[in-house]
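Weekly modeling sync, notes
Attendees: AB, CL, MP (scribe)

Item 1: holo prediction request
CL wants a bound-state model with nicotinamide-adenine-dinucleotide before deciding which constructs to order. AB pointed out that an apo prediction alone won't tell us much about the pocket. Agreed to run with the ligand included and paste results into these notes for async review.

Input as submitted:
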Amino acid sequence: MTGIRLGISGLGSAAGFMIRAATEDPRIILAAAADPLQHPREAFVRDFGAVGHESFVDLCKDPTLEAIYIASPHEFHAEQAILALEHGKHVIVEKPLALALADCDDVIRAAAKSGKIVIVGHTHAFDPSIMKIRELALGGEFGRLGMILTFNYTDFLYRPRRPEELVTARGGGIAFNQISHQIDMVRAVAGVNVRSVRANVGRLDPSRPTEGNSTVFLDLDDGAAASLIYSGYDFFDSDELHGWIAESGVEKPTEGHSASKRLLQTDTRPERERRHLLAYGSRTFSSTKMHLPHFGTFIASFERADVRVTADGIAVFDAEGKRDIPLLTTSTMPGHRNVLNALWAAAREGQPCIHDASWGKTTLEIILGVLASAQERCEIGVNPMQSALRHDSSASKTNSVPQASHRRPLAQSAFP
Ligand SMILES: NC(=O)c1ccc[n+]([C@@H]2O[C@H](COP(=O)([O-])OP(=O)(O)OC[C@H]3O[C@@H](n4cnc5c(N)ncnc54)[C@H](O)[C@@H]3O)[C@@H](O)[C@H]2O)c1
């Protein structure tokens, strides 16, 4: 079977990870890219003998491309996904799918009309550990899900940022960028719909005036619940609890606390310039020992076991004690590799991917619900038509859950 000729939109930090995964995957041909910045474009053309475009439209017009990975800034995702679909391309689009629910609907319609697939990712729901917990959970291995706890303390707000990344209305802050990972991990493992959201978010630093911390409670079908905690204020680093292994799986220095914040204050270069150093061709990847990617601590509690994400797999704590299930592979980017696996399975084998455009819309609805709930201090209902793929395990017995009394639906245009 011939390889998939892939084009890339946006050669920034996200693209660097996907490119690394693609270079390890003989089924993917890195054929073209579009980015308004000359430097990453030239580096990409040089490294892969590929074609570089300044404009996304020109990338779409390339008849040799079968799929496009969209890793441009959030505000372009929906329009680029639609244009790519209209040009007959399969689409992988970074999270979030869009910034408004109506735009998600447009992508869903464009996908249906074109017959092409949309995969929303990468998110950490594609991590081998999360996919393994999902597989075991949906197979009924541990019985009914009771709750999920996930928390992550990072330096998110103090990494070099584009100006719009600090403006919530333009998709900035942790809600669109980071909580989206947590929501997707919870939804993937739970395999059931999210009924409602209650949340509190914080803006603790006026110099980075967007959401930087959050406490989210998701009420799930089947009577389970999830707690999602996030802080991007660069004080505590929860990788300390993960053997000092970074999100990508590389070992990291232990003196990290507040380092990004200090660098932001002392580095005299403009932040935009430092941001560009993360683009393709400017960044070098660590060659230290690789572990699995992760997104903070993740513990799922079932009837018969607690299951935790570990550095190299998952740990199951049950009546027999603790057992480790190692999941290391030869890939240095196994989460991104799983996105490419999903592309191949969908494009070549006709297998559906749960992380489709409808999935992306529901995740956005929950993100918007987080912001609305925090602002209005009430519980926000989530549309029951969402596309969490339901499992039919007999181990799962539906609890009777009363309707929330102080719940209101999310307004379509709600942007708190
Ligand atoms: N899944 C992950 O692990 C992960 C990690 C980082 C970022 N992301 C996501 O990837 C996306 C990009 O984030 P990033 O951190 O790489 O940003 P970035 O600023 O590092 O890169 C964005 C790139 O897009 C280019 N660009 C700007 N306008 C464009 C346009 N109209 N068309 C094409 N390219 C354009 C910029 O020049 C830049 O090179 C966001 O959706 C972000 O949430 C995902």
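Recorded for review: Residues 9-15, 17, 34-37, 40, 56, 71-74, 76, 94-95, 122-123, 162, 177, 275, 278-279 surround nicotinamide-adenine-dinucleotide (CB under 6 Å).
Action items: CL to compare against the apo run; MP to circulate these notes.
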